[in-house]
Amino acid sequence: MAFSLTNRAKQIHKKEMTTMEKLYLPAILGGMGVTISHFFKKKRTYQYPEVKRPFAPVFRGLHVLKRDEEGRERCTACGLCAVACPAEAITMISAERKDNEKNLYREEKYAAVYEINQLRCIFCGLCEEACPKQAIYLTDRITPANYNRNQFIYGKDLLVEPVDRDKRVDITKRTEKYQQKESNR
Ligand code: SF4
Ligand code: SF4
Predict the structure, then answer these.
(1) CB-based contact 152:118 (threshold 8 Å)
(2) Spatial distance between the Cα atoms of 107 and 75, rounded to a whole number of angstroms
(3) Phi and psi of 84, rounded to 5°?
(4) Which tens digit of pLDDT belongs to each residue from 32-70?
């Protein structure tokens, strides 16, 4: 006599398969029907990288440190972006501008070192909102993949936009769409 610890045990009776079930044909045809029906439905996948998925209008990606009209760095190393950053991804070292550096930095104090750890960043955009100098913006660019973690520490060499006006990073599209969305609320 078999013992059971609880009364929840159930006796399972294996049902004999019918001849049609043994052929597996109805199941195979049913499965193929499901597959074929998907050929005529709208594709939910993209042939990346040939076809890129359109981003949301307010997508926030890789940062840029902007220059002013005269090509000077706007950042004054006030540290507000670092304080606002919930991920503690921003670090900087400030320095005093010298007289012969007025064409390089807009303010008397500037960031000698400015780094963002892209692995820590959650792309919340709080640094952009906190900046009183309109110096830092998030863009619609993606941080490129890399095998080396150190490569994700982005310094000024990667963050500050080029002096050349034609090579500056365009943030107008993203900020316009963001402002539109805010005004529609
Ligand atoms: S986007 Fe957010 S998480 Fe990333 S650096 Fe700016 S404040 Fe920090
Ligand atoms: S980016 Fe803006 S908030 Fe951050 S240190 Fe520079 S001026 Fe201050």
Answers:
(1) yes
(2) 8
(3) -75, -20
(4) 999 999 999 988 888 988 998 888 888 899 999 999 999
Residues in the chain: 185
pTM of the model: 0.76
- Token digits for 96? 């005093």
Rounded Cα gap, residues 66 and 151, in angstroms: 21
90 lines ligand 1 (CB under 6 A): yes
Ligand 2 atom closest to residue 130's alpha carbon, by position in its atom list: 3
Q: Say if ligand 1 is within 6 A of residue 127 CB.
A: yes
Fold of the domain spanning 63-184 = Alpha-Beta Plaits (3.30.70)
> Is-contact 31 24, C-beta < 8 A?
no
Domain ranges within the chain, ordered by starting residue: 63-184
